[in-house]
Amino acid sequence: MAVFWAALLFAFSTTITPGPNNVMIMSSGMNYGIRASMQHLLGICLGFPLMVLLIGLGFGIVFEQFPNLHQIIKLLGVLYLIWLAWHIASAKPERIEQGKSKPLNFYQAVLFQWINGKAWVMASGAIAAFTTLEGLYWLEVIYITAAFLVVAFPCVGLWLIGGALLRKVLTKPLFQRLFNISMALILLLSVLPVLNELRQFYF
Could you read off the pLDDT of 71-117 as tens digits, one per residue? Predict the structure, then answer.
């Protein structure tokens, strides 16, 4: 049980901080509101702990055996994040209000975890840090997964609520546009560490 409490602190500190998931859910809250973004929220909060569980129970071994596959997924993730940043930055409030643009659905948010660079760092880091040779490995993995599940809804939910509150404040299209561009830039900044890793791997 000590593993759970230690992992809980790690999970909280990494989940509450800015990253692709939080930036995207905040942008979704601002542009679409809380109700329309609930599937996106659930996809993050359930999809990431599932990722931690699968990596912990051996899925990560596949990538150890085939490191190129892992790098390819990361590259696809970077490209997807760049596309998302453009999508967020270029979104016009008028178009969003008319329903021509939609937030991520549950399955898209779940699948997004597997190409999210920060998610990989968090999941693999937690498994490496909080599993021991002396303990029951599978039980420790479950404790770590439970820790991320516990903190996911309040931490990610705060970013969604923050975005929804900004929706009420940023009533002018110009302000909404500036907000979207700011979120897109933050999203692009989150890609830089992964780009550096890819550069080191291939060059």
Answer: 777 777 677 778 777 877 776 655 444 455 688 999 999 999 998 87
pLDDT in tens, 129-175: 788 766 788 898 999 999 999 999 999 999 999 999 988 777 677 77
Domain residue limits, the chain: 2-202
Cα–Cα separations (whole angstroms), residue 194 to 59, 115, 190: 20, 11, 8
The two tokens of residue 50 are 């599932």
Q: Which among 54, 62, 77 is positioned nearest to 193, based on CA atoms?
A: 77
